[in-house]
Design goal:
Belongs to the sigma-70 factor family. ECF subfamily. The protein is an all-alpha fold. It contains nine helices and no strands. α2 crosses α5, α3 crosses α4 and α7 runs antiparallel to α8. The N and C termini lie far apart (44 Å).
Length: 198
């Protein structure tokens, strides 16, 4: 059997469980690493990764590997799910505190859990925090172009943006991250290649 994403996805959509398992094995690690970049607990990263592949199957009639790979779609979906997870957790925590007539305190994640997530994602806390404050469309572009090395054209196709809009949005996202990170070593990676500034 052809082992490209397109061939495996076509087989999976026809009911081949082994083909879907092969896609899961191929992309699970990168989807999990990306989820861990945006979340503060290992359990949440595990949940989002699983939910991303469940969403892939649920939307199987609508998903097509436009760049030859399912990975960009998986990363964008994981980004959206991490935002939903973060909002849901915050709302649930705030509700519990309101029920007890107490103001919701700032939650400090368990240090060991945070360390596990960021070690798995090869990130430190300043970079993870800077990524989490980006707006979702900006984070999607940074994820695809800066962190996962897709071309701007590929990322624009996946996100349904014109190349010009993607270029402008990416420039603004890079600028915001460079400002947030200041002297952080990762700031150099956020500089746009020559000729990419709008």
């Amino acid at each position: 059997m052809d082992s490209t994403d397109e061939a495996l996805w076509a087989a999976a959509r026809s009911g081949d469980g082994d083909a879907f398992a092969a896609l899961f094995d191929r992309h699970h690690g990168r989807v999990h690493r990306h989820s861990a970049r945006l979340l503060t607990t290992a359990a949440d990263a595990d949940d989002v990764t699983a939910a991303t592949f469940l969403e892939l199957w649920r939307r199987r009639d609508d998903v097509h590997p436009t760049t030859g790979s399912l990975l960009p779609w998986l990363l964008v979906t994981a980004t959206n799910l991490t935002r939903n997870t973060t909002r849901s957790t915050r709302r649930y925590r705030d509700l519990l505190h309101r029920l007890h007539h107490q103001p919701a305190p700032h939650r400090t994640p368990d240090v060991a859990d945070v360390a596990e997530v960021h070690t798995a994602a090869h990130l430190d806390e300043p970079l993870a925090t800077a990524l989490r404050v980006l707006r979702t469309p900006d984070l999607q572009l940074i994820t695809l172009v800066v962190l996962e090395d897709l071309t701007l054209t590929e990322a624009a196709t996946v996100l349904g943006l014109s190349p010009g809009a993607a270029k402008t949005r990416l420039h603004r996202a890079r600028t915001r991250l460079r400002t947030a990170l200041a002297d952080h070593p990762a700031a150099s990676r956020l500089r746009a290649p020559e000729g990419q500034h709008p």
